[in-house]
Amino acid sequence: MLSSEFWKRRSLRVRDNQRTKAAELTLRESLYPICLVTILFFLWGFSYGLLDTLNKHFQTTLDIDKTRSSGLQAAYFGAYPLASLGHAAWILRHFGYRAVFIWGLFLYGLGALLAIPAIIHHSFAGFCVCIFIIGNGLGSLETAANPYITVCGPPKFSEIRINTAQAFNGIGTVIAPVLGSYVFFDFDEQTALRNVQWVYLAIACFVYILAAVFFFSTIPEITDADMAFQAAETHAEAEDKPFRKQYRLFHAAFAQFCYTGSQVAIAGYFINYVTETRADTSASLGSKFLAGSQAGFAIGRFGGAALMHFVKPRLVFGVFMTMCIVFIAPAITQHGDVGMSMLFVVMLFESICFPTIVALGMRGLGRHTKRGSGWIVGGVLGGACVPPLMGAVADARGTGFAMVVPLCFFVAAWTYALAVNFVPAYRDTVDAFSTTEVGVRDRQDVVMGDESGDMGAVGDEKPGVVNSERV
């Protein structure tokens, strides 16, 4: 087991200028790696849902206002660009996807372990630092997992694939508030904080076990050469342009910034909204309502992915983004059950927006795919910028009126939905990938590995790499 051959097969480095057959994987061949990576989507959904619950919990137990409590979101999402454009992007381009998965899980577990002494000492600033480390870990995972799910398997199904995987993110966001309603709010302060410690210890143990699973698993790597091949096969030649001229990518990153900021602000202040605007609503009950709205979010992702089998993903995205604007507006003035129900509907239609922006924004990037994915994931920085703005408005005018902030950012994100549906330069590139047969038809010339089931090398010593001269 510990032979040199074993360690060579565990190598995390893959050369980006060489073709593998990973860009042509069929549905069957991509099933195991997709299932493994989908676990990561559940993890950061759980972490994100837990953060929304802790936002209100710390307002109560540490006696801080809404603006300061938004420091949790600022620390969490502020770490994303550092990962997606910095360390995780560097590892992705110089090593590969599996290396980034392991690195992200290591940082996630480290932040979870360091959170325990911060909680013991009631240090909100210390806990924000730990959340920043966790955010770097999750930002690393998103930098790799979103593009990996998008490109691992037939290109024409990429939006369906990423929305289905992201639906498990939604499941995590449902479980976390339910857990929070029972272990954070129904106890005295000391017991509740002790329960938070146990939650983060369990998270650390789980992610380190998962990191070991990724290390010992053999999953196909996808190189820049593979993505250039995909773009050429679909006749989407955008990759021939210099990176600085990929204006569709930068528009997608801007839309991701605005959309994510709105989504995070709504979820982060959902409990505040219902406790302020709905009579006789406690924080514990508000947490259960948040779980219900997140359930609608998860259902929307499964439903949206199913709908994409019959309707072009860009059209589904356009309708869902429009509905977010339509239903958030009444929540500003209509309070009580009516206002809360509007937020439920908004979160239902939010469901497919984030992953679909990722998938559509990466269309046609070819050799720029890894670098471009970092910019789109870096747009998550909106989750650090918009909640403090909404918190300041909520402190001054109430959480109900503060819903005008996510409304404005939804409108800004809507510009990308309009462009991808009505601007030919956007629409034609997206549609080229929707009709390609790469990975759909049976392949007779694909080298998928040796008898052990690994992605074997052909003309190269590195596992998972096929010499480009032989392709």
UniProtKB/TrEMBL annotation:
Gene Ontology CC terms, in alphabetical order: plasma membrane
Keyword presence, Secreted: no
Keyword Transmembrane helix tagged: yes
Transmembrane region(s): 31-51, 71-92, 99-118, 166-185, 197-217, 249-271, 315-332, 338-362, 374-394, 400-419
Alphabetical list of InterPro entries matching this protein: MFS, MFS_trans_sf, MFS_TsgA-like
Pfam families for this protein: MFS_1
Extent of Basic and acidic residues compositional bias: 459-471
Key words of the record: Cell membrane, Membrane, Transmembrane, Transmembrane helix
Compartment(s) where it occurs, according to its Swiss-Prot or TrEMBL record: Cell inner membrane
Superkingdom of source: Eukaryota
Membrane topology (UniProt): Multi-pass membrane protein
Region (Disordered) location: 451-471
SUPFAM superfamilies per the UniProt record, alphabetical: MFS general substrate transporter
Molecular function terms from GO: transmembrane transporter activity
Protein name: Major facilitator superfamily domain-containing protein
Organism encoding this protein: Parachaetomium inaequale
